[in-house]
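Treating backbone geometry as a discrete language has practical consequences that deserve illustration. The amino acid sequence and the backbone structure tokens for this protein are reproduced below.
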Amino acid sequence: MSKRIVISLLSFLVSCNVLFAHNIRDYLRTMPDSLCPILSKNNRLDMIDFIDSKMKAEVSNKFEGKSEMTALTDSFADIKMSERSSVQMRLFNPTDNKDSLAIAMIYSYYAPEKESILRIFSTTWDEYDIKTIDFSIDDFVQKPDTMSVERFHTLCDMISPKMVCMDLNSQNENISFTLSTPFTNDEDKEGLKKIIKSKNVNIKSYVLK
């Protein structure tokens, strides 16, 4: 076998390994159970098999409830853990080195309004220390032209306590932030929806240099 063929074959195998290692499925398989205690490893494996087979990816979890994987790509996964909780995962580049890789996870809880927590891990599941980025209510609200100033301020005063919820973007490395609406009547809830806007931040912004 010529030297050129050997080099080409090795390059092909290396590229395959890189592609293989960059698939979120592999990290769903290797993640510690402690990060998703409601799911066993077999639960996670079944979810992957079901969704790749175009089946509903629902399993009976450790607490004898139902959990469902609702989305899965090579870099993103979304799992409805229960009626009151969900987990999203996304592979992203944490540095300027294009070959580096990390895993962002957003845990969301509904009690009944949504509130979220961000955690970031290396591909060997060591947790990163992350920056604290504090948002004010002003970052999330905007007065519509058709709304009076008085009504706008009344609605803003209802946003207490401030509860920020997050979603990972399946198409890029952004996190979408917004405010959960407090428990109010239907009229005020509709008013809050009109003034609350989302804010997008690249996941990399949270990684400490």
Notes: The first helix runs from residue 3 to 21.
